Amino acid sequence: MELNNVKNWLELFTTKVNENKAYLSDLDGAIGDGDHGMNMARGTTEMQAAMTEKNPETIADTFKLAGMTLVSKVGGASGPLYGSAFIGMAKAAKDSEDLVTILEAGVEGIQKRGKAEAGEKTMVDTWLPVIEALKAGDLTTETVEAIVEKTKAIQATKGRASYLGERSVGHLDPGAVSSGYLFTTMIEAEVN
Ligand code: ADP
Ligand code: MG
Ligand code: MG
Predict the structure, then answer these.
(1) Domain extents for the chain?
(2) According to CATH, what is the number of the domain 3-188?
(3) Pick from 23, 140, 153, 190: most CB atoms within 10 A?
């Protein structure tokens, strides 16, 4: 894993989120409160500004700065959840450059914070199968997209979408979609 690729990854993620801000908020409008695009665009833009200002010199410090910025700048549930992911990844990156190990620490951070298991229609339903695909040596953009698509069929039992009960079925989970962007941009930046 190379520092430059990691920085490029976060920049590509920021661009992707900002390009799809309205779409992410529309998805959240259907099963939540319509602010996911706004939350993620604000958080990632602040993250990029912090990267430019502080220019972290290690992978661990880069993830840590990303995590701290997302926790402090995003009001919605997604800020602390993505923040916990990056802070977990920062800790793991101190001892390891193995992508699977680092991403596992990331999803552990999300699950510690949000208590969601697989199959509850959250971002966890992107993270866990993506890590499995990566372990199997089969992580492509198409794999990520297929994983995200599967959240449509799930009934939400965590987060705001759970208030809708079975009416949450048939809609993509917005956090699963933004996490899909995180992993397609990771592939694009050749982080491995
Ligand atoms: P809010 O729901 O506070 O408005 P966002 O709209 O930014 O926050 O984020 C919603 C996304 O957060 C959901 O689509 C889901 O993926 C994710 N999410 C919500 N609660 C949890 C949880 N407990 N664990 C994991 N992810 C969650
Ligand atoms: Mg929301
Ligand atoms: Mg909200």
Answers:
(1) 3-188
(2) 1.25.40.340
(3) 23
Report the half-sphere exposure of 40 (CA within 13 A, side-chain side). 30
Residue 161 CA: which ligand is closest? 1
Encoded tokens for 24: 């992410």
d(CA 167, CA 63): 36
- Each residue of 165-189: pLDDT tens digit? 999 999 999 999 999 999 999 999 9
The ligand 1 atom nearest the CA atom of 178 = 16
- Helices and strands, number each (H, E), in the chain: 9, 0
Q: List residues near ligand 1 (CB under 6 A).
A: 28, 32-33, 35-36, 39, 76-78, 81, 110, 114-116, 122-124, 158-160, 173-176
Write out pLDDT tens, residues 18-70.
999 999 999 999 999 999 999 999 999 999 999 999 999 999 999 999 999 99
| Ligand 1 pocket: which of 38, 110, 125, 160 to mutate (most atoms within 8 A of CB) | 160
Separation CA 169–CA 37 (nearest Å): 20
Instruction: Give the pLDDT of residue 75.
Output: 82
| CA 142, chain centre distance (Å) | 17
